[in-house]
Amino acid sequence: MKLVGIEAINVHAGSACLDVKKLAEHRNLDMTRFENLLMKEKTVALPYEDPITYGVNAAKPLIDALSPEERDRIEMVISCTESAFDFGKSMSTYFHDLLGLNRNCRLFELKNACYSGIAGLQTAVNFILSQTSPGAKALVIATDVSRFMVEEGGDALTEDWSFAEPSGGAGSVALLVSDQPHIFQIDVGATGYYGYEVMDTCRPTADGDAGDSDLSLLSYLDCCENAYLEYAKRVEGCDYKTTFDYLAFHAPFGGMVKGAHRNIMGKVTDVKRKDIEEDFQRRVMPGLDYCQRVANIMGATALLSLVSTIANGNFDEPRRIGVFSYGSGCCSEFFSGVVNKEGQERLKKFNIKEKLDNRYEMTIEEYEQLLINSNAVKFGTRNTKLDADFIPQARKALGKETLFLKEINEFHREYEWIS
Any idea which of 2-16, 102-116, 369-383, 400-414 has the lowest mean pLDDT? Predict the structure, then answer.
């Protein structure tokens, strides 16, 4: 069997975060409902952070670890996002330039709501499997940003935000896909995909979301079940209870994942309802750990859950992870792969938990001011210079060289490295 999968993977979850329980209390949300979100923190995008800074900061450690010869074998850069700031120019061109990659490279972008990251991964996997360029690598960068904005003097307490505000995060997952799957070896051909047209959530305007939260939940549950059932048709002897040592889900919020897992367990296994909670804690919660601290980063969330699973699981022996990705509108996929101890040790070198711990925790007052300042970088901004003094301690929070947005000059975004 041909080997293919994730050679290296890293997460960048920004420089600032917010305690979402404090936010929910500040917004006077129903706290009994809030507890069902199973969330702790959200990454907050500062005005000088955008999908490019998140993506480059996630990818740079991967690129820096390569030899010049290995770097030149990156022949495809795929940006996966629903947060692009240009209708035509792909963000992959910025990634390619800022990371100093070989010009003999395909550069393109995928947009498919929260499914985009896995769409990028599977596109890269099939490029490697095709062997049209033996030994080549693909760089996939899933990056998304939730920005909530108000005009100065406006009211931040908008009814439309409700529970979307605490669960909307920002961040990026970058991964190298190759025939050296040190981190995650794909089970080639073991996949089930399922999709149809539905108006559950969408972005009908450049900076605005719309949708039906109840319909989105139902569509997620439907897709999770049917994508898995299609997987089971294609993989002889598959058993949801025993085939997968861990399960990584796209996680808009933890409560949705818990409901989806409970739904499948009830329909395709004989596990008693009282034992489903134990199974959830053992097989699913390792993948929710990072998601609970970053919140929903759309196209990157299923990959974030996979990273969290690898970081927090027990891989003393090779173990199989089942992965479910869902994107509103909709498309979904259930697939799997194998992780061993070497993969976990390689991942730990990127100190992802430490970087999450080092983020600057914003106050509610700082966050409210941010809702006004974020207008400076909304879609279509032609010229602006970013205020580097806005929460300057956040710019130094990570303790390492970090890329930030400096200005927008005739629509072109210009960046700077801050130590």
Answer: 369-383
Q: Which of 12, 96, 182, 250 is catalytic?
A: 250
Domains and CATH numbers, the chain: 5-418 (3.40.47.10)
Residue 161 predicted with pLDDT over 70: no
With contact defined as beta carbons under 8 Å apart, do 13 and 359 qualify? yes
Is 114 tagged catalytic? yes
| pLDDT (0 to 100) of residue 3 | 97
pLDDT of residue 172: 98
250 catalytic? Reply is yes
Summary mean pLDDT of the chain: 93
Instruction: Please report, as a single letter, which amino acid is at residue 226.
Output: N
Amino acid code (one letter) for 66: L
Over the stretch 301-316, which tens digit does the pLDDT of each residue have?
Answer: 999 999 999 999 999 9
Known active-site residue 26? no
List the one residue out of 34, 10, 12, 33 whose CA is nearest residue 22: 34
Catalytic residue among 82, 109, 225, 333: 82
Q: What sign has the CA pseudo-torsion 99, 109, 48, 364? A: negative
| Entry pTM | 0.96
Burial 212-237 (b: 16+ CB within 10 A, else e): eeeebbebbbbbbbbbbbbbbeebee
Considering the candidates 17, 80, 114, 331, report the single residue annotated as catalytic.
Answer: 114
